[in-house]
Specification:
With 340 residues, this protein is of the alpha/beta class. It has ten helices and 17 strands. It folds into two domains: 168 residues, Medium-chain alcohol dehydrogenases, catalytic domain (Quinone Oxidoreductase, Chain A, domain 1, Alpha-Beta Complex); 127 residues, NAD(P)-binding Rossmann-like Domain (Rossmann fold). The strands form four sheets. Strands 3, 4, 5, 8, 9, 16 and 17 form a seven-stranded mixed sheet that branches. The radius of gyration is 20 Å and the shape is globular.
Length: 340
């Protein structure tokens, strides 16, 4: 192992879960982390701001331990190695994603469904994430990054992009079919680009003029309000907005046999569904739970192939609370990225 134990780093931590404008984050000084076996340390260049970070700060997701450091769309450079590794070298540019580790032994892991592992760990929830100067990662769960992407462009791909890709798979839209996207933030605007490249018709239903304008600029086939009606029955849909009241709305918009995939890790309560109008004719409602490493590798290949690009708003790392507040209040379109 190589590394300097004497240095200190600055890290944002969830001091006390509360509405983001009430200051749940606190910036603290901590010891420079030292990588263990199979780990590498990353000097953080930037970190994407995900709605999951907001849920953690506000207590929708209960912190798994005191003083958790959020952030799981991390881009940086390896600057220390633990023992028993070898996948990465000092100076390599890598990405640190949401999925931090799995047990590799449970039934789900053995059948290739590691996103359903019974004892997973997640970056920025179970282990400290990238709202910091440095973080650690199990090198088996990190991604090498293409030089074609800037750090700021790469960061949102590591969760928003990957989860959007898995959600698209779960929606099971047939070739040339109609896809509905409910909500149009960091994940949806990347999913829309991929879906359009794959030849799908994309109908965006979202609140906020900035999000609606971004959808138009990216070439969506139609854009309307979140509770609106798309111009044609949907073969599949993805709910990105954490709003359970939109589930019946989206289910009614599905064609017979269509599927609604709920992309978020947290969702407000779903109103009662009416069987005849919202579930009959084999309409399906399903969740999306994390992702596999294979999902991540495949999405990053497709993103490079099709030139998927994030629309980003940059913030200095020192202004993480403002970035999360702006996310909560819909003050930007696309994705926010914190820079060291």
């Amino acid at each position: 192992m190589t590394g300097d134990r004497s240095r200190a780093i600055l890290t944002w931590v969830v001091d006390h879960p509360a509405p983001i404008d009430e200051g749940p984050l606190r910036r603290v000084e901590r010891e420079l982390p030292v990588p263990g076996p199979g780990q590498v340390r990353v000097r953080v260049s930037c970190c994407g701001v995900c709605r999951t970070d907001l849920h953690l700060c506000e207590g929708d997701l209960v912190p798994r331990r005191p003083g958790a450091a959020p952030g799981h769309e991390v881009v940086g450079v390896v600057d220390a190695l633990g023992s028993a590794g070898g996948r990465f070298a000092i100076g390599d540019r890598i990405g640190v994603p949401w999925l931090a580790s799995t047990d590799g032994r449970c039934d789900a892991c053995r059948r290739g469904a590691e996103n359903l592992c019974v004892s997973p760990r997640f970056t920025g929830w179970d282990v400290d994430g990238g709202y910091a100067d440095h973080c650690l990662v199990e090198e088996a769960y990190a991604y090498g990054l293409s030089d074609a992407l800037t750090d700021e462009q790469a960061a949102p791909l590591l969760c928003a992009g990957i989860i959007g890709y898995r959600s698209l798979l779960r929606a099971e839209v047939p070739p040339g079919g109609a896809l509905g996207l409910y909500g149009f933030g960091g994940s949806a605007h990347l999913t829309a680009q991929l879906a359009l490249h794959l030849g799908l018709r994309v109908h965006v239903l979202t609140r906020g003029e900035a999000n609606q304008q971004l959808a138009r600029e990216l070439g969506a086939d139609s854009v309307g309000p979140a509770d609106g009606e798309p111009p044609e029955p949907l073969d599949g849909a993805i709910l990105f907005a954490p709003a359970g009241e939109l589930v019946p709305v989206a289910m009614r918009a599905l064609a017979p046999g269509g599927t609604l995939a709920v992309a978020g890790i947290w969702l407000s309560d779903i109103p009662a569904l009416h069987y005849e109008t919202e579930l009959f004719h084999e309409r399906q409602l399903r969740s999306v739970t994390a992702n596999t490493r294979a999902d991540g590798e495949e999405f990053l290949r497709l993103a490079a192939r099709f030139g998927i690009r994030a629309t980003t708003t940059a913030y200095p790392m020192s202004e993480a609370p403002r970035a999360l507040s702006d996310l909560a209040h819909g003050r930007f379109g696309g994705a926010a990225v914190l820079h060291n």
